[in-house]
Amino acid sequence: MHAFEIHCHTYYSRGTKIPWEGLPSPEDVIRKAKSIGLSGIAVTDHGNTKSWERAKKEAKNQDIVFIPGEEIETRQGHVTALGISEHIKNGLSVPETIDLVHEQGGIAVAVHPYDMRGFGIKDLFLKADAVEVFNALSLDRVSNWFTRKKAEGSGMPMVAGSDAHSLEMIGYARNIARDAGLDSFLKEIKKGEIKTEYEYVPLALMNDWIRQRFINSYADVISYINTRYSMPKAWLAKNMIRRYIVSTGSFWNALGKLGIVFSSVYAGLKVFSYC
What we know:
This protein is of the alpha/beta class. Strand 1, helix 1 (26-35) and strand 2 (40-43) form a beta-alpha-beta unit. 42% of the residues lie in helices and 16% in strands. The chain folds into two domains: 2-201, TIM Barrel (Alpha-Beta Barrel); 204-274, no CATH class. The two termini are 37 Å apart. A nine-stranded mixed beta sheet has the order 7-6-5-4-3-2-1-8-9, sandwiched between helices.
């Protein structure tokens, strides 16, 4: 049996308010995948394929399967493309995006479809080839449960994704296939033959990731605050960020746990509205 990671980001995935979103280089992603025993990994950066050439080269050196991928922002939400040959632009509808994925011989996965932040495509997941029923980076504990229930009721092929934005997050969700080849793996996904193994990314790793994002993006974040916030909001925001960056104490872990509780309640209310 062979384990694959199919939802992973490098530093080519960029944010808006906090520019650094993914942290690792393409080469480090591949080396990490090899070191933890994965047979293959998909790099699915947001809206670009800049990592492909470097990741593919390192995958050859490490003798593991590289899956060319991309996380695409459709008009209705996010879809990942696996096994494609070139960049697919953001901003199209879900059906248009999926058609382009299929034209390139790839498969489309509806990732975190009921994400509480509204980044998923919700019931449009039925138009994809597979649905991500577990996202290891999901802050709440409700959206994954709800997605699995919906997927089981529809008979959709199911996969899991770590949504890894740091090296330490890679491998928290694994997709187990019989064969190690790229084409055979994608076929197993479409046929619903994939088995999944997963656990949530620990809160400590989430905090480390967020803290490093602020450190790497510090000048940009301060500039954003200075140009958009007025006093005393600007002072408070900058002071909290500085404290967060230098502190690793229990206060922030406790705050994170509280965030999970509130996120789960909020996600539960959103899920109820979908029913």
